[in-house]
């Protein structure tokens, strides 16, 4: 599904390389976790995959279903089925949640040449997803993410995911700022959404989230590279010993 | 989940599809090919006399005009606004233009030239009594109830071509007609109130208007009457090289209520054209007027060629106790906008509100805002201004809040937000606050922001294209003001917001 080959990325503003030769292959139905210390380039990777401005790809390719992802516009990538759950979901004052969701869904459908969803079907769909995630009607009436708590914002991200039905989901530190109950809700949303045709890239500092969303592969990212790949036991190891063993690995590769 | 935002959903869908279909072109730029009768070029006493004669006016009206003309000759064009105004040659304009076949004013709408009716229908303003303003019918059939009727007075260049629902309004006691007709039919009311809110020598442009105004609308709501439908005037400039000078006078007698809408468009031309209007509102005890404007004069092209110079004086006089006025304006058109709809809060407990969206794109300039003059006790005012600049445009909010020495316990709240799109435009906020007694309270909040890259990225990551995302974010920014508009205008305004900003990103 997604194939990243020797990717090198630097910042547009300053000549600083953040991702320094990263390769990763994700097949349909797989859940991959990327763990790493602060500043290792995890969030940069998610931004580059989604197409955010401000980065320069110096080298490498990213293929999605065999075609070049980096050529596509941000909204085209979304319509292809790439979804980024933001670490810090953005507030949009004055724009109602429902209006935002419907505009997004119908924009994607239009790009894909599908018919737009009518208001009644749309409402029915959103209400059922919101109910599963225990998101209140009151919150659905609010402007996008405005006045929402950290946990509410993250649940809102999961609601958007369920509605838009992407095939490749990046969860960027979705666990940050969540209490145990909220984490359980979010994880339940994600687990219900898992299928053999969907893949996940879960970016996290901590092993905690991986107790709920169980990865098939765990990658340790240090200084812009994947330095170690294993299964879920690798995450437990990190939990016990921290990243210090891996920091050394990052240096050796230089 | 209320119906409220299902309606909004429809509106936004409409906004987005309009953005796609219109492609940044001024939608109302066509002109009507119709034989037009002009007064001779330029301005002098004879022109003033001619206009008065064309309107078949009584002597007192001509005297009033001549007094204004003689004052105007001594006045200087104001230069305090933050506007670069090219020199206007007041002798190189036509001050009167009317379709030749309007010489005899049609007695009913059936007699109006089909070409004129077609023009208004193309603008989405059907001059028939069965239909309503643009968009409402197709979009929200459930809203098509009796109380959504809108009466229209259509002003084409210098004359009113027709007024709908006149008879039905008359049976409720409401007078709604062109001002030229009112001068003849209701001279006592006109004499009593004309110039009582905006005196003839108030300012350079108002004084010019007093001398040469050719038509406009007149409304009188008698005591205790709630106007049974919304009233509106649609102004259309068609003739070349011609200024439009209309005058509107609305009187809400004790305990009455009216909601009034005003729309404006003009053809796309290379020469700039002058528009100098005066609107006077008189509000007596316990009465209320809501006055909404969607101003969409031709803004000029992206290089600043052509466009309307819009110099307008609008003022409401809350004379009575507990009187209330609400100005809502959406200013998207005109090359230059100079306009400060104001409230004089004379009656005790009176209140004035001003909600404004001013959008400038390309080379447009706007210097707009309000004046809240608190004179009575316990008066209230509220100002919500949203300025949006894109391209190389300059957008200034200028507002005065004055609370007089005898205006005890009066309050003002001002919120003034500016949004910048791109890095070649400017936004300026010039508040004047003048408080003369210690029991008054005035609050002022102001923000300036840019369309946020993160917000755009967030919308686009969810699949929304860049221009649609800008329209969505800007409509969100303006929401408080859009909500203050009557529904049919809110829809129109949302579309306009999106269209006006076409090509402002990327």
Quick structural overview:
The complex is a heterodimer of chains A (254) and B (506). With 254 residues, chain A is α/β, with parallel strands linked by helices.
Question: What would you say this structure looks like, in words?
Answer:
The complex is a heterodimer of chains A (254) and B (506). Chain A is an alpha/beta fold. Chain A has nine helices and twelve strands. In chain A, the strands form three sheets. Chain A has a six-stranded mixed sheet with strand order 6-9-10-3-11-12, sandwiched between helices. Chain B is of the alpha/beta class. Chain B has one domain. Chain B contains 13 helices and 23 strands. Chain B is globular. Classes of the chains: A alpha/beta (254), B alpha/beta (506). The interface between A and B is large, with 41 and 33 residues.
Distance between the termini of chain A: 30 Å
Q: Using only CA atoms, what is the Rg of chain B?
A: 22 Å
Number of domains of chain A: 1
Number of helices of chain A: 9
Strand residues, percent of chain A: 25-35%
How many H/I helical runs of chain B? Answer: 13
Backbone shape of chain B: globular
- Main beta-sheet annotation of chain A: 6 strands, mixed
How much helix, percentage-wise, in residues of chain B? Answer: 25-40%
Radius of gyration of chain A: 18 Å
Helix content of chain A: 25-40%
CATH-level-4 superfamily name of chain A: P-loop containing nucleotide triphosphate hydrolases
SS-derived structural category of chain A:
alpha/beta
Total strand count of chain A, please? 12
Tell me the greatest interface. A-B, 41 and 33 residues
Main beta sheet of chain B, described?
A: 11 strands, mixed
CATH hierarchy class name of chain A: Alpha Beta
- Please tell me the overall pLDDT of chain B: 84
């Amino acid at each position: 599904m997604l194939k990243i080959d020797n990717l090198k990325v630097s910042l547009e503003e300053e000549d600083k390389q953040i991702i320094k030769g990263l390769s990763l292959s994700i097949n349909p139905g797989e859940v991959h976790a990327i763990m790493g210390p602060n500043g290792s380039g995890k969030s940069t990777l998610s931004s580059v995959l989604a197409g955010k401005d401000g980065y320069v790809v110096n080298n490498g390719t990213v293929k999605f279903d065999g075609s070049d992802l980096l050529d596509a516009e941000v909204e085209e990538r979304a319509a292809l089925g790439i979804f980024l759950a933001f670490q810090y979901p953005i507030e949009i004052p004055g724009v109602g949640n429902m209006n935002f969701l419907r505009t997004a869904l119908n924009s994607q459908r239009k790009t894909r040449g599908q018919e737009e969803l009518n208001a009644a079907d749309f409402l029915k769909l959103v209400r059922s997803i919101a109910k599963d995630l225990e998101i209140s009607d009151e919150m659905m009436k609010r402007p996008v993410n405005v006045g929402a708590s950290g946990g509410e914002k993250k649940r809102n991200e999961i609601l958007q995911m369920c509605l838009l039905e992407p095939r490749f989901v990046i969860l960027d530190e979705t666990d940050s700022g969540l209490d145990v109950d909220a984490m359980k809700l979010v994880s339940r949303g994600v687990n219900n959404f898992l299928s053999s045709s969907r893949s996940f890239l879960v970016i996290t500092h901590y092993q905690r989230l991986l107790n709920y969303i169980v990865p098939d592969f765990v990658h340790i990212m240090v200084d812009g590279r994947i330095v170690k790949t294993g299964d879920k036991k690798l995450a437990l190891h990190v939990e016990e010993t921290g990243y210090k063993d891996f920091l050394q690995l990052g240096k050796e590769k230089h | 989940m209320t119906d409220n935002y299902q309606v909004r959903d429809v509106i936004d869908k409409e906004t987005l599809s309009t953005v796609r279909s219109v492609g940044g072109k001024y939608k109302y730029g066509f002109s009507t090919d119709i034989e037009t009768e002009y007064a001779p070029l330029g301005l002098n006493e004879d022109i003033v006399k001619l206009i008065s004669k064309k309107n078949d006016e009584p002597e007192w009206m001509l005297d009033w005009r001549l007094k204004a003309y003689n004052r105007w000759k001594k006045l200087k064009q104001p230069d305090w606004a933050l506007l670069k105004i090219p020199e206007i040659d007041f002798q190189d304009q036509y001050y009167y233009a009317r379709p030749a076949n309007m010489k005899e004013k049609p007695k009913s709408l059936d007699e109006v030239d089909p070409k004129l009716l077609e023009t208004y229908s193309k603008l989405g303003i059907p001059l028939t009594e069965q239909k309503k303003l643009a968009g409402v019918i197709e979009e929200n059939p459930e809203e098509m109830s009796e109380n959504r009727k809108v009466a229209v007075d259509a002003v084409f260049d210098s004359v009113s071509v027709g007024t709908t629902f006149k008879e039905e309004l008359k049976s409720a006691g409401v007078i709604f007609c062109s001002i030229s007709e009112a001068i003849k039919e209701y001279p006592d009311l006109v004499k009593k109130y004309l110039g009582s809110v905006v005196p003839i020598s108030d300012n350079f442009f108002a004084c010019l208007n007093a001398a040469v105004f050719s038509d406009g609308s007149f409304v009188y709501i008698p005591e205790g009457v709630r106007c049974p439908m919304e009233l509106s005037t649609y102004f259309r400039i068609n003739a070349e090289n011609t200024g439009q000078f209309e005058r509107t006078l609305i009187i809400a007698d004790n305990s009455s209520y009216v909601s009034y809408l005003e729309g404006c468009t003009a053809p796309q031309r290379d020469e700039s054209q002058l528009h100098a209007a005066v609107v006077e509102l008189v509000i007596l005890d316990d009465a209320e007027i809501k006055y909404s404007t969607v101003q969409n004069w031709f803004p000029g092209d992206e290089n600043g060629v052509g466009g309307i110079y819009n110099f307008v004086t609008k003022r409401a006089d809350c004379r009575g106790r507990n009187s209330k006025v609400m100005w809502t304006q959406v200013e998207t058109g005109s090359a230059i906008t100079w306009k400060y709809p104001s409230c004089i809060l004379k009656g005790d407990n009176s209140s004035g509100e001003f909600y404004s969206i001013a959008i400038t794109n390309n080379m447009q300039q706007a210097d707009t805002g309000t004046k809240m003059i608190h004179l009575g006790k316990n008066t209230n005012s509220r100002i919500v201004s949203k300025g949006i600049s894109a391209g190389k445009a300059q957008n200034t909010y200028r507002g005065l809040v004055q609370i007089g020495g005898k205006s005890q316990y009066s309050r003002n709240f001002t919120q003034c937000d500016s949004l910048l799109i791109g890095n070649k435009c400017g936004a300026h906020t010039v508040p004047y606050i003048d408080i003369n007694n210690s029991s008054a309270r005035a609050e002022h909040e102001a923000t300036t922001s840019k369309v946020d890259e993160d917000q755009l990225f967030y919308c686009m990551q969810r699949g929304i294209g860049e221009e649609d995302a800008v329209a969505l974010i800007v409509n969100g920014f303006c929401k408080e003001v859009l909500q203050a508009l009557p529904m049919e205008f809110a829809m129109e305004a949302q579309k306009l917001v999106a269209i006006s900003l076409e090509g402002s990103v990327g």
